[in-house]
């Protein structure tokens, strides 16, 4: 029997929450134009027609989605459940148990791995991205990223460099093959994630999610090809997602117990270690975790438990941002990453203004800007690209530069040209808020404006083979052409992206902005009956991690060695989506207060 859970019918309030699709429609009208023409045409009537069409589309989709979720949360899927169970019982692979015992979780994790096995075999030894290859090269003492031999640049977290390099070194030490080491890491990552997902399915069953929604969730994890392809890859974003999903499960249990779980030594240690791994594997990961922990401190929990959570947050920040950079990096030949990553978006908007109004800057403003950035005002003007901030950031800032002075100048220029900043922001983030764009994402702004545009679909890009820099990792692992096995995997994702309706699942914007907005829409519609402080605490990491996408220096696939960046950045939103839906289906109706 399914418990009485979220989203029973409220037909009389059919248009409740209409503001969510309307706002999302406006955002997509902006993003679609910016992604195609690098500008938002607020002065053109067709823009408002686009807004209306997007709003109507999202309103219809959200209402249909609401009814589907209602069915999943009630007895509306009883008949479908019997058919699904009858089919799945014929196949051992599909007989998920969702049990609480270690044995059940072990079996379910094996079922996930069995479903991924064809991809694991076909993608042997695994996939290294260009930047990851340079990271590994630095581990082996090869010069990369402009650093001297033996130096490791922490722009790409040193933790990941050690992790990947350690596995590859071990494989080479045992077998004499670097590829074996790559495969060892890929297998370890797949196993870790499969166990974490099995634990998540068990947790959702424990919360009361019905068998059919659980089955759909399990099948999605098993057979959506982007999961095994991603976890066969060595990338900081994928590695962080693996640690984060395990940490998040512990976060859920922490909130379930009103933080009392923190007093158990084993839980405390595991929560701390996973939080540290999540924070070290990706710079943004630490800020997401810290924000969620700090918000918990404001909840109605016991003081001593809140103090313990605050202590964990302080410990993570101290280790990652103070202790390691000041005491470990110098001894380990680790070069700190530049501070420009935190200001990539503001610098990009300044580049837009410099390009549009190259003469509208005072000498004093130019002096402050050029004392902060490695490039001059004229250089950021010519190097400005609407879709990626790296060309104007220069990957570093000048030493001793004043951040407050720079931000003051940045604000002054923005007040003079607010629409320029707005256009720059929407262009930079257009990959998250549009389904299509132009094919000129690797060229300058002036080339985008004057060239013929050919629309492309902004879908997830699944890299299936290693492309290494011949001057770095290529010295150890020479590049090879795509083989027949990798071509099979590539053809599977290409086919999925070409099938109408089904290919909606492959659009970056669907997982980055449409699905999070839909979740917010569902919560708003049932806020009085089902949504509690506990609900919001537990969903906070998902919304914060989705919002964090809007501070990245790129939001779409670009040229110049940046292919696939958007997919890796937003992958965690795809990974968390079925879990978040399961959490919504597990919400129980609030008890009525006695009058």
UniProtKB/TrEMBL annotation:
<feature type="transmembrane region" description="Helical">
    <location>
        <begin position="569"/>
        <end position="587"/>
    </location>
</feature>
<feature type="transmembrane region" description="Helical">
    <location>
        <begin position="238"/>
        <end position="255"/>
    </location>
</feature>
<keyword id="KW-0812">Transmembrane</keyword>
<feature type="transmembrane region" description="Helical">
    <location>
        <begin position="308"/>
        <end position="329"/>
    </location>
</feature>
<feature type="transmembrane region" description="Helical">
    <location>
        <begin position="284"/>
        <end position="301"/>
    </location>
</feature>
<feature type="transmembrane region" description="Helical">
    <location>
        <begin position="46"/>
        <end position="69"/>
    </location>
</feature>
<dbReference type="Pfam" id="PF19484">
    <property type="entry name" value="DUF6020"/>
</dbReference>
<feature type="transmembrane region" description="Helical">
    <location>
        <begin position="15"/>
        <end position="34"/>
    </location>
</feature>
<dbReference type="InterPro" id="IPR046062">
    <property type="entry name" value="DUF6020"/>
</dbReference>
<protein>
    <recommendedName>
        <fullName>Glycosyltransferase RgtA/B/C/D-like domain-containing protein</fullName>
    </recommendedName>
</protein>
<feature type="transmembrane region" description="Helical">
    <location>
        <begin position="504"/>
        <end position="524"/>
    </location>
</feature>
<keyword id="KW-0472">Membrane</keyword>
<feature type="transmembrane region" description="Helical">
    <location>
        <begin position="216"/>
        <end position="232"/>
    </location>
</feature>
<feature type="transmembrane region" description="Helical">
    <location>
        <begin position="536"/>
        <end position="554"/>
    </location>
</feature>
<feature type="transmembrane region" description="Helical">
    <location>
        <begin position="182"/>
        <end position="204"/>
    </location>
</feature>
<feature type="transmembrane region" description="Helical">
    <location>
        <begin position="262"/>
        <end position="278"/>
    </location>
</feature>
<feature type="transmembrane region" description="Helical">
    <location>
        <begin position="110"/>
        <end position="130"/>
    </location>
</feature>
<keyword id="KW-1133">Transmembrane helix</keyword>
């Amino acid at each position: 029997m399914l418990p009485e859970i979220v989203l029973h019918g409220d037909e009389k309030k059919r248009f409740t929450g209409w503001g969510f699709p309307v706002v999302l429609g406006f955002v997509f009208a902006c993003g679609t134009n910016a992604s195609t023409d690098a500008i938002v045409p607020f002065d053109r009537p067709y823009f408002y027609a686009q807004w209306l069409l997007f709003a109507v589309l999202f309103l219809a989709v959200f209402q249909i989605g609401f009814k589907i979720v209602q069915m999943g949360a009630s007895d509306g899927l009883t008949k479908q459940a019997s058919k699904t169970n009858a089919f799945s019982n014929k196949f051992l692979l599909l007989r998920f148990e969702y049990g609480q015992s270690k044995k059940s979780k072990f079996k379910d994790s094996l079922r996930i791995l069995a479903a991924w096995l064809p991809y694991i075999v076909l993608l042997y030894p695994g996939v290294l991205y260009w930047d990851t290859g340079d990271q590994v090269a630095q581990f082996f003492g090869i010069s990369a990223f402009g650093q001297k031999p033996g130096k490791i640049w922490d722009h790409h977290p040193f933790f990941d460099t050690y992790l990947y390099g350690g596995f590859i070194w071990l494989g080479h030490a045992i077998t004499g093959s670097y590829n074996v080491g790559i495969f060892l890491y890929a297998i370890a990552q797949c196993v870790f994630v499969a166990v974490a997902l099995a634990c998540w399915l068990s947790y959702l069953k424990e919360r009361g999610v019905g068998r059919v929604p659980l089955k759909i969730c399990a099948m999605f994890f098993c057979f959506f090809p982007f999961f095994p392809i991603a976890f066969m890859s060595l990338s900081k974003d994928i590695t962080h997602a693996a640690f984060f999903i395990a940490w998040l499960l512990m976060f859920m249990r922490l909130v379930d117990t009103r933080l009392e779980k923190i007093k158990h030594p084993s839980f405390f240690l595991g929560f701390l270690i996973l939080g540290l791994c999540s924070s070290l594997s990706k710079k943004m990961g630490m800020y997401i975790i810290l924000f969620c922990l700090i918000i918990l401190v404001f909840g109605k929990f016991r003081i001593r438990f809140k103090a313990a959570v605050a202590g964990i947050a302080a410990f993570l920040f101290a280790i990652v941002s103070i202790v390691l950079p000041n005491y470990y990096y110098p001894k380990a030949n680790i070069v700190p990453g530049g501070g420009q990553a935190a200001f990539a978006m503001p610098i990009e908007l300044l580049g837009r203004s410099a390009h549009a109004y190259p003469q509208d800057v005072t000498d004093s403003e130019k002096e402050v800007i050029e004392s902060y950035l490695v490039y001059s005002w004229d250089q950021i003007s010519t190097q400005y690209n609407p879709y990626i901030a790296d060309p104007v950031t220069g990957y570093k800032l000048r030493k001793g530069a004043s951040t407050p002075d720079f931000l003051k100048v940045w604000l002054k220029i923005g007040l003079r040209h607010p629409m320029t900043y707005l256009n720059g922001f929407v262009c930079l983030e257009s990959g998250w808020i549009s389904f299509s764009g132009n094919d000129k994402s690797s060229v300058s702004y002036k080339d985008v404006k004057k060239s013929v545009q050919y629309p492309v679909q902004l879908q997830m890009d699944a890299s299936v083979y290693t492309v290494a820099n011949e001057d770095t990792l290529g010295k150890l692992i020479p590049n090879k052409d795509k083989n027949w096995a990798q071509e099979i995997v590539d053809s599977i994702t290409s086919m999925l992206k070409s099938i109408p309706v089904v290919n909606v699942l492959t659009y970056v914007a669907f997982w980055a902005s449409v699905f999070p907005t839909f979740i917010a829409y569902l919560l708003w519609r049932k806020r009085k009956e089902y949504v509690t402080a506990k609900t919001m605490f537990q969903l906070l990491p998902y919304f914060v991690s989705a919002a964090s996408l809007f501070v990245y220096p790129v939001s779409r696939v670009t040229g110049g060695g940046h292919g696939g960046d958007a997919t890796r950045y937003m992958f965690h939103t795809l990974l968390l989506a079925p879990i978040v839906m399961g959490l919504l289906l597990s919400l129980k109706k609030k008890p009525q207060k006695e009058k």
